[in-house]
Amino acid sequence: MDVRVAVKNEWPQLRPLVEEMGTVEDRSHLRQRFDAVVDDPTHVLLVALQEQDVVGYTWSQDFGPHLRSGRSIVRMHDLFVRPDARLSGVGRSLFRAVRAWATERDASWLQWHGGSESREFYAHLGIEPIVEDPNRPPYEIAFKHPAG
Ligand SMILES: CC(C)(COP(=O)(O)OP(=O)(O)OC[C@H]1O[C@@H](n2cnc3c(N)ncnc32)[C@H](O)[C@@H]1OP(=O)(O)O)[C@@H](O)C(=O)NCCC(=O)NCCS
Predict the structure, then answer these.
(1) Residue nearest to atom 29 of ligand 1 (CA)
(2) Alpha helical stretches, state H, 6-132
(3) Which residue lies with its CA nearest to atom 12 of ligand 1?
(4) Which one, 26, 60, 110, 143, has least CB within 10 Å?
(5) Digits of tens for pLDDT over the chain (148 positions)?
């Protein structure tokens, strides 16, 4: 399995996964929004491939420097693995890649909301929600930086 940045011509393969991840609004502009995300260096949309087949994706955004710390806040918007490819390490690989992206950008925080069925997955990664919420638990990783 390979994890890498998505390219625009993968959209037909990726679209069903994006639609299964959650509610899609304004469908007529969905493709345009995908292209804009791929073009924007403050976003990263990664795909997991098994023999050229897109089996998962994740999309994150760097919201830019915090006023006082000067370091970024990165939010993971989506993490999705196709049901037939689950429980074989794809989600873990995608999440690791997002975490690495946030670290490379010298982020202070990586934040996201989990879904109602992702709690066990994050627990296996050693991550617990910062507030208990059975439907949309919030998560945060605070990266350590030297003071100053
Ligand atoms: C959550 C999700 C991304 C996990 O993807 P995945 O590819 O199945 O996860 P992995 O195979 O990498 O699992 C990593 C570990 O978590 C465990 N795990 C994953 N899902 C689990 C579940 N539902 N119940 C129990 N354990 C689970 C795996 O067994 C594995 O355990 P290990 O540490 O012993 O190896 C996937 O189920 C999914 O796309 N769900 C729908 C969307 C969603 O909820 N996204 C997350 C919210 S942002």
Answers:
(1) 87
(2) 11-21, 30-39, 90-104, 119-124
(3) 89
(4) 26
(5) 999 999 999 999 999 999 999 999 999 999 999 999 999 999 999 999 999 999 999 999 999 999 998 999 999 999 999 999 999 999 999 999 999 999 999 999 999 999 988 999 999 999 999 999 999 999 999 998 765 4
Residue 49 token pair? 């491939």
- Write down the H helix ranges in the chain: 11-21, 30-39, 90-104, 119-124
What spacing in Å lies between the alpha carbon of 125 and ligand 1's midpoint? 9
Residue with tokens 């995300």: 37
Ligand 1 pocket list (CB less than 6 A): 79-81, 86-92, 112, 114-115, 117-118, 120-121, 124
Q: Which residues contact 47 (CB under 8 A, 6 or more apart)?
A: 3, 4, 5, 6, 10, 14, 54, 56, 57
